[in-house]
């Protein structure tokens, strides 16, 4: 598929009011391997060509809707790819393989991987997520809701990735065209993600999704994963939660640098900076953000709660209903493309057991959604 075909100004699927019920999505499972990064990328691209093209269309349509021209999209994607080449050239080799396998140009795949950075170019209200951890030696567990644009309910997939060049296997989910996102590796180190916002955020840095991929590929301990995160020249704000069997660390990322937050027992994060070091320029995601209310609700839920027996028990603290701060999100009626938020994926990590459970939709939907479970073991 050529760039003209992928970014044709003619109406796409994403110019309609179509919204899929996230809980009814049946995500594809990609099994990705290869002799080296380039071969692994080509295999991913060939296997997922249709999904990757759909996701490129989704983001290009969203960016265009937000006033970011295709030329600007391409320039921003290429800047992030250049930053990534300086930081982790093997990932660019792999993304080049993805593009070749999918019949796209490299910048188009870069568009998806750098979507968080490109969104900083628009006056846009990013979507919100919630993460909850219980940290204890030999008993750390974590759960997350991934909230995003409701129209993107079927542009993600489960994945099981075999490491190359001494890197680790990892399992989880990603949006089509990304090398990694939320998941756990064979060293039982996991990563979760929440978006944040700062007045100085900009495009062109190492994509945060590439940082997640690197942590999954090479982070053999929580400390190693945190060092990988802190080494990247990022330009957009996020918080990455790193989990292992004995501990968890939330690494806030902002224009001024990073701050690692850790605690024993319960701690949570939503979509505003909570560390003291990165508050200069910090902003709510949007004027109607309920990030602080969601965090307060979660913290009140666990204030007197004992250590959880399992991650399913933790999900109960993320279940919300009418009248409560919306940890579980459903699309608002009457809103258009780019304005509707839904909880697309629910994630459970048990690093001690090396267990990852993921299901479409919100914690409220777990009983009716089709879940997948991965077991991570060292090779």
How would you explain this protein's 3D organization?
The chain is α+β, with helices and mostly antiparallel strands and 379 residues long. The protein folds into two domains: 22-121, Penicillin Amidohydrolase, domain 1, CATH 1.10.439; 130-375, Penicillin V Acylase, Chain A (4-Layer Sandwich). Helix content is 30%, strand content 22%. The chain has eleven helices and 14 strands. It has helices spanning 3-6, 37-47, 49-65, 70-87, 89-102, 106-113, 115-118, 208-218, 222-231, 291-302, 311-315, and strands at 29-32, 130-135, 141-149, 156-161, 170-175, 182-185, 190-195, 238-243, 248-254, 257-261, 265-269, 341-350, 355-360, 372-375. It has an eight-stranded mixed beta sheet with strand order 1-4-5-6-7-8-9-10. α3 packs across α6 and α4 (70-87) crosses α5. The longest helix is centred in the N-terminal third of the chain and has 18 residues, at 70-87. It is globular and about 55 Å long. The protein starts with a helix and ends with a strand. Mean pLDDT is 91; it is low at 1-10.
